[in-house]
Amino acid sequence: MIVSFAIEGVVLYSEDLDRARAFYRDILGLPLLLDEGHVIHFDAGTVRLAIHRCPPGERRGPAEGFLVMGVKDLGIAYDELRRRGAEFLGPPSSRPYGRVAYLHDPEGHEIGLLEEPRKGTDGYRSVAPLVDRFERVIQALGL
After folding, report:
1. Which residues contact 78 (CB under 8 A, 6 or more apart)?
2. 28-76 pLDDT, tens per residue?
3. Model confidence over 101-140: pLDDT tens digits?
4. Burial of 105 by CB count in 10 Å (0-12 exposed, 13-18 middle, 19+ buried)?
5. Bridge partners of 101?
6. Is 14 helix (H, G, I), strand (E, B) or coil?
7. Given this structure, which CATH class describes domain 65-143?
C-alpha cells in the first residue's frame, strides 16, 4: 500500500499572539479560522497556518527557515501590504525562479512573496513543474 501525504498545516511560535494575530489577519489579510487563546489558526490557501503561544519561559531561538507565499502580481501585493503597514526588507527583485520580496512577521519569521515566472520566459523553463503545480492549486481553490 502506498501512503501519500499532503501538508495540512504549518506551525510557528509567538511570544505575543495579539501582535501575530494583527500581522497575519490585518496586514497579510489571512482569514482567521479559529482562536483558541493559546493558538490561532489562519487559512493560508493551500495550508492552515497555526501560531502557537510559546510556553512561558521557553523563548525560542532565532527563526530558521521561512514561509513562501505565492502571489499573482507581486507589484500589487507589495504596494497593498506596505499600505497596511508591512515593512519589507527591500523592494521586489527578479530572480531566475520569479520575482520576490521579503518581510518579517513580529517574531522575526521571514516570509517571501513569490510571483512565479510567466509561461514562455526563461525563468518558466527552468522551474516549469513548480509553476504548473502552483497554477493547478490556484485553479482548484478557485482563486
Report:
1. 88, 91, 92, 101, 113
2. 999 999 999 899 999 998 899 999 998 877 777 777 778 999 898 999 9
3. 999 999 999 999 999 888 887 777 778 888 888 888 778 8
4. buried
5. 113
6. strand
7. alpha beta
Residue for grid cell 498545516: 9
DSSP single-letter state for residue 131: H
SS3 letters for 56-119?
CCCCCCCCCCEEEEECCCHHHHHHHHHHCCCCECCCCEEECCEEEEEEECCCCCEEEEEECCCC
Give the 3-state secondary structure of residue 35: strand
Q: For the chain, which residues make up each domain, given as ranges?
A: 1-56, 65-143
Cell 519561559 found at: 57
- Flag whether the pTM goes above 0.85: no
Q: Retrieve residue 80's grid coordinates.
A: 497593498
Q: Is the Cβ–Cβ distance between 51 and 14 less than 8 Å?
A: yes
How many other C-beta atoms lie within 10 A of the C-beta of residue 95? Answer: 10
β-strand pairing of 110-115 with 66-70: parallel
CATH number of the domain located at residue range(s) 1-56 in this protein: 3.10.180.10
